[in-house]
Amino acid sequence: MLRETFQHGYAHNPIRLWSRFEQQLGQMFDEITNDIITKPDLPIESILEIHLSQLQQRFSLLMG
Q: Is the pTM of this model over 0.70?
């Protein structure tokens, strides 16, 4: 798989796209951490489910 990526990968667009993924991940980790700290009565599984489903939607939009 790595070999195929090097042979057929693109040099510029994925790098720009990856920085958007990193930004979204960082923001989501901040939001998850904030919710865990500020909403101790909410189960962590619920917090993760909410945020990860939102992240999945964002990533789907980014990937087209």
A: no
For helices 44-63 and 13-38, angle between their N-to-C axes, nearest 10 degrees: 160
Give buried/exposed letters for 41-63 (b at 16+ CB in 10 A, else e).
eeeeeebeeebeeebeebeeeee
Per-residue pLDDT tens digits of the chain, which is 64 residues long? 556 666 766 555 556 678 888 888 999 999 999 999 999 999 999 999 999 999 889 888 877 7
